[in-house]
Amino acid sequence: MDPFSQATLGAVAAQSTSDPRRLRAAAFLGCVAGLAPDIDVFISSSIDPLLFLEFHRQFTHSLVFIPVGALICSAVFYVAVRRYLSFKETFLFCLLGYATHGLLDACTTYGTQLFWPFSDDRIAWNNVSVIDPLLTIPAFILMVVAVIKARANYARIAFAWIVFYLVIGLVQKERAELAALELVRARGHHPVSLEAKPGFANLLLWKIVYEQDGMYYVDAVRAGLTTRIYPGDRTEKLDIPKHLPWLDPSSQQARDIERFRWFSRDYLAVDSRDPNLIVDMRYSMIPNEIDALWGIRLNPSASAAAHVHYQTNRNPSPERLQKLKRMLYGESLID
Fold this sequence. Notes:
Elements: H1 3-15, H2 23-35, H3 51-55, H4 66-81, H5 87-106, H6 133-149, H7 152-186, E1 193-198, E2 205-212, E3 215-223, E4 227-230, E5 234-236, H8 240-243, H9 252-263, E6 268-270, E7 277-280, E8 294-297, E9 309-312, H10 318-328
Helix pairs in contact: 1-2, 1-5, 1-6, 1-7, 2-4, 2-5, 4-5, 6-7
């Protein structure tokens, strides 16, 4: 989830247990502790471009690390609040703020290792976008009002709003999946897997990805008062012997593909425009397209020890943004 949302949820979680005199300090500690787990973004390597994928949302985001992370935050920030709080109170507010981070991240589609070190499964409940203003802005306003008016009830309302919005996300996800299943049946398909993922910054437009006979199908569902399907693209699932016959199975690039496969939960395909670019099918700006937001580029002439190149694609054209807008409004894409 974006830092603004993480800070806001951490702050309102801490404020919700505070008395009026400590709301400002609670908001501060909940905010910084709610942001703290993302310090793992600094774990990276100029040599190994996939290292950050393995460590982001790993141990700092796990459930068992919450009290450790809260204790570290308490030790660091106690000096800023010791005039107003005891260390015990400082730890409580940091604990509440820190605890929200991994759980909120798990609500997105990226994947969070909540059960590290016992499991490296990336938990993704797919019920909110990584950025959603409708989730965050009302809660932020209520958090500020709680400080100004010195009333914790505003923070509790903010916390309740976030929980309510996440529940709405689960409802919308189910509606999108039911609409997708009708489409799948109409095509006579029996998919190996099917997932619905929220579109960027909204719970109205959903990306549908499913696997059928070695192909990935990508469609969009607008789950408004009624549902509308936007049929999309399809592409072959990554088959290394077929798509990358030149690849040495013992090479570093082959190992990097498996690392990227774990990260993307095996939603891998070869980009239609570049036979050496492997993309993560889960993400695209336009939900019924396969124009992935990120992928790894291989080099057939690279040495056996060379890593892949990680690249992103986050510059949509005005025409594609207009297409996204029309889908959000439930309009036809055919002029």
